[in-house]
Amino acid sequence: MYNAGLYLHTGYLWQSIKMSDRIGQLIIVVLVFGSIMAWSIMVTKWLELQKARAETRRFLIAFRGESHPLGVLEKHGNFTSSPLYNVYVKACDTLGRELKPGGFNPDSLFVGGLTGINGALSELKLDSIAKMAECKVAEQALVLEENMGWLATAASAAPFLGLLGTVWGVMGAFTGMAVTGAPTIGAVAPGIAAALATTVVGLMVALPSAVGYNILSHDIRKLSVGMDNFAQEFVAEIQRVYTIHSAQAAMEYDGFREDADGEAPSEEGLDFDGA
């Protein structure tokens, strides 16, 4: 019974579309193309975000499982579908340039490969790394939001485009009634039904687009917040390893030199008899 009713209403809609004038049919064609575009964007973006979330989970497990913040890079991990990984690579590249201006070599970024105080990061260099990470976060957010503007346009413009077709059709129906001089329901009903068809099609485009836009925007917002949090976490780890640790190593080295310089000579090294 339900399927029969749906088929009947679909038939009414198709009949109304066929009774529309050329302007109404043109509006319906535009709405159909808009619907195809909106659904293609929603499906493509959903698959893209699903892959990004899966890669992000794998990357965070790998990153937090390393004792050194550059362990994932040193092991040549590849999580290119994750926006967090792209932020990570950019921050590591900036760190490499700050520590070794002549070129970037991941193997030289570990504390064990650094000598003396040259391995310590100044506050200025640490701030530079943080800013570059923030720039990459903003860039990745734009990548995630790509084509979302078209989806928002479909959700907001489709009802008004359908309303335009309805107003145009109703205006034509009443104009025809005035010309024929037959103010009856039978004379005006087909024109009004054809006019309302554009509103129905417009709502059929707008409702899925609006729901899809809200769902995808929520997922993008969560990934964007995750990128911000990861950038701060990574900079804190860099500060711990390359600022605090290296500074402590330098202080211990300076203390060792002071002890060596101030050490008194032993009695075995002195010759009181002149022999």
- When the domains are counted, the total is 1
Can you count the helices?
7
Taken in chain order, the helices and strands follow as HHHHHHH
Measure the end-to-end span. 122 Å
Number of strand segments = 0
Instruction: Indicate the mean pLDDT.
Output: 78
Low-confidence stretches: 1-8, 111-118, 264-275
Global structural class:
mainly alpha
Question: How is the main sheet built?
Answer: none
The helix content, as a percent range, equals over 70%
Radius of gyration: 34 Å
What would you say this structure looks like, in words?
The chain is mostly helical. It has one domain (2-254). The N and C termini lie far apart (122 Å). It has helices spanning 2-19, 22-64, 71-74, 83-99, 123-144, 148-180, 185-261. Helix 4 runs parallel beside helix 7 and helix 6 (148-180) runs antiparallel to helix 7. Mean pLDDT is 78; it is low at 1-8, 111-118 and 264-275. The chain is rod-shaped, with a radius of gyration of 34 Å.
Task: Looking at this protein, list some descriptive labels.
mainly alpha; 78% helix; 7 helices; 275 residues; disordered C terminus
A few lines on this structure:
It contains seven helices and no strands. The protein is mainly alpha-helical and 275 residues long. It has one domain.
